[in-house]
Each structure stands twice: as C-alpha cells, then as structure tokens.
Design brief:
The protein is an alpha+beta fold. It has one domain: 2-Layer Sandwich (60s Ribosomal Protein L30, Chain: A). Helices cover 23% and strands 28% of the residues. The protein is built from two helices and six strands, in the order βββαβαββ. Strands 1-2-3-6-4-5 form a six-stranded mixed β-sheet, covered by helices on one side. A hairpin with a 2-residue loop joins strand 2 and strand 3. The chain starts with a strand and ends in a 7-residue tail after the last strand. InterPro entries: RidA, RidA_CS, RutC-like_sf, YjgF/YER057c/UK114. Pfam families: Ribonuc_L-PSP.
Amino acid sequence: MADIKKIETKNACPPAGPYTQAIIAGPNIFVSGQIPADTSGNLIEGSIADKTKMCCENIKGILGEAGVAMDRVVKVNVFLDDMANFTEMNGVYETYFAHKPARSCVAVKQLPKGVPVEIECIAYTGMGSKL
C-alpha cells in the first residue's frame, strides 16, 4: 500500500459516501465520480451547463491538489441521466478537455442524490510509482 496515495482536498466536493476523492497508483491518478456539488457538498442549481462546469471544477481542484494539470487527463467517463443533455454538457466539457482525452458518455437511469450528470477520470501523473 506504500505505492498508493489517497488525494483529499477542500477544493472540491467532499465524498458523498465511503470513498476517496482520488487515488494515485503508479503513474495514474483515478478521480472518483464528481457530481455538481460545491466544496461544502451542497448540490448546485442551474442548467446542465452549470452542473457540468461544477463537476469539472471539482476534478480540476482534485487534480490540482495532486499537482496534475487537466491536460494530463487520458480517460473520462461521463454519466448523464438523459441523453437530451448531451449537447449542452459537451459544450462545457470541451472547454475543460480541449486536448480530447479518450471518453465514454452513457445515459443511466439514476445518479447519486438525483443529479443529472457525474464525471470521473483517469490522468497520467508522469511520476511513475514515486509518490
């Protein structure tokens, strides 16, 4: 376990359950799914664009705590409760991930706390297994 490091920051939504905001294992950082909640854990109001932005800002805060830039993200998984929100989500998403990492986007029946969007990612730290 010495080569695995938990990342925790007050610059993102706190975990809503028994998990860690992110884990560094080897050269990768695995960011848990981020929902549209502020740094106090309060769900935000607004459009899908607003909520997508909050998810991405949480990811940015977590990666920043680990010293990893957004352009190091190599894989993203986006979960929507309705594919009708795809275009609006995508408009905000592309401003955070202009480098176009690999991505999946799927519609799911329901997300935690009834939110319409959740985003998780994997980034390359470039640090090998040194923590």
